[in-house]
Amino acid sequence: MRRIEWWQRAIINTEREAQFFSEAEAALPLLGESRTVDSVFESMLQQRLRLKTNLQLAEWLGV
Question: Is-above-0.70 flag for pTM?
């Protein structure tokens, strides 16, 4: 969960917080009304799974 920790340190309670959530809401249609870094991360995982399934993408292992 390093990404969540980074978001909390770098974005939450700063002038970038509103922009972060606005962009997350635009990019992650499953986000809904919840404005937490945990919900953004969960929505990101759901979006990733949806794209992987719909586009039949193979898992990239970084090799």
Answer: yes
Tell me how far apart the alpha carbons of residues 31 and 52 are, in angstroms, rounded to a whole number: 18
Report yes or no: 27 and 50 within 8 Å, Cβ to Cβ: no
Q: Identify the pLDDT of residue 63.
A: 66
Which amino acid belongs to residue 25?
Answer: E
Token reading at 59: 């898992």
pLDDT at 1: 66
What is the DSSP secondary structure assignment for residue 63, as one 8-state letter?
A: -
Query: Which amino acid, 48?
Result: R
The C-alpha atoms of residue 63 and residue 53 are separated, in whole angstroms, by 21
